[in-house]
Amino acid sequence: MMSTAETLLEVRDLKMHFTDGGGWFRKNRRTTKAVDGISFDVHAGETLGLVGESGCGKTSTGRCITRTYKPTAGHVRYRAGDGTEVDLAALRPSQLADYRRQIRMIFQDPFSSLNPRMTARNIIAEPLRVNKVASGTELEDRVVELLRKVGLRPEHRHRFPHAFSGGERQRLVIARALSLDPRLVIADEAVSALDVSVRAQILELLVELQHNQGLTYIFISHDLSVVEYLCDRVAVMYVGRIVELGPTDEVFASPRHPYTQALLAAVPQPDPARRNILTQPPLEGEVADAANAPSGCHFHPRCPFAQEICRTESPTLRTTSDGHQVACHFAEQLRLDGLSGDDAGRTADQEVQT
Ligand code: SF4
């Protein structure tokens, strides 16, 4: 059973491991643990952010939920539109069609995700036609309605993608994703390829559509300023694991995990009042190789607070006194800097106080 009536999605112990062949006799087989046992809920109507550096497993998580990938292990329990509950991870490909209409994905690059030989009308009409949702006049009316909904002019529906600007193409991608009335939209770096002013317009459109249609979003991004604007809660991932999860404003104001703090330190601050708040230097070193992750806490080679236990024991994700879920042996002892203006001038303790 799901946690609460509002829980739309319940992900439990999800793993996505990729194994390469390793050549003759498979002696050099490598297993990349892109997602390595993560659990989280998504509530109906909320926006959950998945953040982390490239290679942290956030895109693989999204693809397990849409069942682009068949998870190696774990559960993706989804409450469908008719109230029934189903474990998407356990379904056979032939059973997925209904759920693929209810859970849609938007990708980063609108140009490569649109067929350049299809008109805007056909791009939007295709899912409606293939799924036998509408035909004839009703189909044409739906296309016009969807174009209006995303702020495009219906008279432009016979244009090809190259005739639209980058922002308009992303609106087209959103219209196609919405054509089947999804309940959950997974947006993977959906605004990263857009310039700043267009990005703001698309974010506003996503918020407006959420309010008007009761959509639930999982928003995958490496851009924390976008996540701060859009997401109710945020899950921070590092090498296939969630290291911190909580309400976005609380996690950003008072991070409990050193990796979260390091990511926040890299956020450009247009507001002068919020500059130079963070005393932690930007994160150094590369994200660990998921095929050969460090022992214990995967973050320990980059963590300024690492102790001996961090090299040998993997911290579990647990709820701290302020309600965040954090995977750090010293979450309660560390005083880390966040983005809150109230914290200006506060200094991060470089010593772990045990
Ligand atoms: Fe750093 Fe240790 Fe916490 Fe990992 S468990 S984040 S290495 S202090």
Please characterize this protein's 3D structure:
- This protein is of the alpha/beta class.
- The chain has helices spanning 58-65, 97-102, 120-130, 136-149, 166-178, 196-213, 224-230, 248-253, 258-265, 308-312, and strands spanning 7-19, 31-43, 47-51, 73-79, 85-87, 103-106, 184-188, 216-221, 233-238, 241-247, 318-319, 325-326.
- The strands form 2 sheets. An 8-stranded mixed β-sheet has the order 6-7-8-3-9-10-12-11, with helices on both faces. A 4-stranded antiparallel β-sheet has the order 2-1-4-5, covered by helices on one side.
- Helix 3 crosses helix 4 (136-149), helix 3 (120-130) packs parallel to helix 5 (166-178) and helix 5 (166-178) packs parallel to helix 6 (196-213).
- 40% of the residues are buried.
- Residues 275-279 and 341-354 have low confidence and may be disordered.
- The structure holds iron/sulfur cluster.
- Iron/sulfur cluster (SF4) binds next to loops.
What is the CATH-assigned architecture of the largest domain? 3-Layer(aba) Sandwich
User: What is the count of DSSP helices, taking H or I runs of 4+ residues?
Assistant: 10
Structure class: alpha/beta
The oligomeric status of these chains comes to single chain
Mean pLDDT: 88
Q: Identify low-pLDDT runs.
A: 275-279, 341-354
**Which homologous superfamily in CATH is the superfamily of the largest domain?**
P-loop containing nucleotide triphosphate hydrolases
Structural domain tally: 2
Shape field? globular
Count of distinct strands: 12
Query: For this structure, what is the CATH class of the largest domain?
Result: Alpha Beta
